[in-house]
Amino acid sequence: MTIKHKVSYLIFCLLCQYHVMSKDYYVHPKLGRDTNTGTSKVHALKTLERASQIKLRPGDRLLLAYGERYKGSLEIINIQGTVNMPIIIKSIPWDALADSTPAIIDFKSKPNGIYIEGCSFLNISNIYLTGNGFDTNTYSNFNMRCGILMVNSRESKTAHINLSELKVFDVFYENEGFTRDKNEVRTANGTQKYGWGIRVISKAKESTIQDIDITNCKVENVSHTGIKLTGSNKNISNINISGNTIKSTGGPGIQMSEVKDVHVWNNTVTYSGSNDDSRKWGRGSGLWTWGSSKVLIERNKFLYANGPGDSAGAHIDFNCDNIVLQYNISAYNAGGFVEILGNNYNCSYRYNVSINDGHRIKGIDGAFQEGKILWLSGYQGNKKKRKGPVNSYIYNNTIYSDSTIVSKIAIDKTCNGILIANNIFYLKGESKAVLGDQYKPETKNGEPIKNVVFQNNLFLDENSWPKKVGIQDSNPIFGNPIFENYGSLNVESYMPKNTDLVKGQGINIQLLANDKEGLLQSLKLEKDIMGNPVYGQPSLGAIEPIKN
Fold this sequence. Notes:
The protein is mostly beta strands. The protein has two domains: 22-242, no CATH class; 285-548. The protein is 5% helix and 35% strand. It is built from three helices and 40 strands. The protein has a 14-stranded parallel β-sheet with strand order 1-2-5-8-11-14-17-20-23-26-29-32-35-38, with no helix packed on it. A 14-stranded parallel β-sheet has the order 3-6-9-12-15-18-21-24-27-30-33-36-39-40, with no helix packed on it. It has an eight-stranded parallel β-sheet with strand order 4-7-10-13-16-19-22-25. Helix 2 links the parallel strand 1 (24-27) and strand 2 (61-65). It is elongated.
């Protein structure tokens, strides 16, 4: 045997030995005892508090029992798996007669269901978590409650963590019956104590959080945000959020601040900004970004967002760059469809379908902002001068509003670089120009908007785009694309039947003048929202029509 083979064999033996040394730890709230070793079902541990004391090693598994309810919290601090031997925490059937429901962690009266700090190569799956108020009316002094809270550490690396097949539901800080002050919803993010679904927070600014997967989870009925990432100087990166279902959150469905390199895809967010419980905030877009870079948001559904402000399907708050929304369905969201605030660079909405977005009316039911189908704002904070987004690309979207909606549009004159092309504006009702109405209201003052390409959009008629908007289509197309089922949530319903009107009638999208970056992805997409190929000259709207 050569030296090379001997070394390889030795490494193989060491890995095998390491694998043999890894252990399974069992926890059962009825059959276990905390004086046990936990290394078998017969010798299972009883409490999550005792399980939190185990120093898990690469390849170890912490196993909870199907159908059982665990009181308290699980804390996982400074444990490190490896790429080939991750640490696993999940539910398993305890015996042949076991309930088929995953284990439930009930963290009522506790700050978190699962707390993760400074860990790497950790997989957590197949667990339910709920935390609804306190056992008494005497509240503790922690400032929030989270189904899962992940933070970084100065001592250990926080990376390669997979959260999957989890369900977080009924998470509230206060007990049932608590009613928030009516002005709380007017604050930027809420000032009081709330319940959150899954939170990732950079507490150690000099450390990073990276390579995190949040997949196929459910978050429902929490008093603020469903999934929230909060970085510092973009030190949260390489994040995948996919296949999740988020419903009835009191705040946004998904929100991220100071992050980079994030992919958000194939999620369904419904009823964000819910106010069906007096403990909820009652305002929130399906998704929004702030201070973030390089975020791709695609193939999601953002439906029924509620609230007196914001509450769009998905919006881009200020200080972002390279945020791209494509292939999404945005429908029945009170705040609207396109919302790009100030000091944003090279952001895009393209090949999306919007259905009856922006129906909110300022002054009705406490609303302090108009709903808008398209809003480009100069707002970048209360203390800063207005500065509109730079190089915004809005093209090949299909936007439908029925006759009950006044479709409102606001474009701040501080914008620099706007491309609006190849969109279908099927607006059956009245359209109206309005001023931006963020916390620092916009005005009519300012020079004409610079660097605009606004052409080749299809309008139902000449009244579909308000004459008072500061920019006008230089080559508008008028006509009825003819959809199959107006108001439907099915993308197929917005396949144009009037193919001659839209097929191949688009323009090729080019970089705006003075834009040396463009979008992270190519300006030209190879497929439409339905996956149909885009050959040659693009068509109008989000769907390439098929000729009979």
